[in-house]
Protein: F-box domain-containing protein
Amino acid sequence: MTNSCVTLTDLPDEILLMICQKLTNFDVIYCLKGLHRRIDRIIHDSIFTSHLSFVKWTKNGFLDRLHCDIVHRRYCLQILPSIHDRIKWLDLEVSSMKQILCAAYYPSLNSLGLYNIDEESIRFLSTAQNLSSEVFETQITTLTVSLNENEQNEEIYESRARIFHSIFVVFKRLTTLIVDQSLYQKLVRLCLTDEPLLTHFRSSTLLQLTINVQCFDDCLSLLDGRFPSLHTLDVELANMYCSNEISNQGDLPNLKRLSISCTFET
Structure:
């Protein structure tokens, strides 16, 4: 009996597809791209290219998958330029965000996940000359953000206000915004009533908002008409304080779902 060796290229498309679906899109593209023309055809399917996550979640935080220089260079110099027009969703960690966004032009990109972001990273999105502002201003409709809040101090409240305000300046067509702080044990919540920068910001396109705020006053501020198209609001607050002095900015004729939870903090 002679020995036989079966390689990936010997497998039918159906089996190759099943194998690829057991892996993350990040690993499929990195490990298999360029091995064979037929394999490239399979992994270039929208199943694997439409959503790429460069972020790995662990119990200690969100980590960058591009921590290795070899992986980083291959993605930025070879892979992303070759599939840039197929990508619709990117999850990025702040340490590699600039390089990935500058690696190619993404004409189909409509969703972003930005993890461990800070003021500097948001400022980069609004000022970088080698990035197309059209991508952010007109294409991005869904945004998930997780703020870098490992350091707790008084200035973090002002910093978070500036970040939140800048989000609506950079991303002008947002329909969904999720501020994901579920990872952190100590939350620095948004205080709309205490930060002048957040008093009058508005968005006429926002339909869905998920966020953590400090008190019931802040929740009422989100419902004061500044988001006239809003139909879904999920908000978690730390206390039920209410001054009953919220100034109404308009109506919410489209609001269909309101979910409020309270986690009392000491």
About this structure: The longest helix spans residues 155-170.
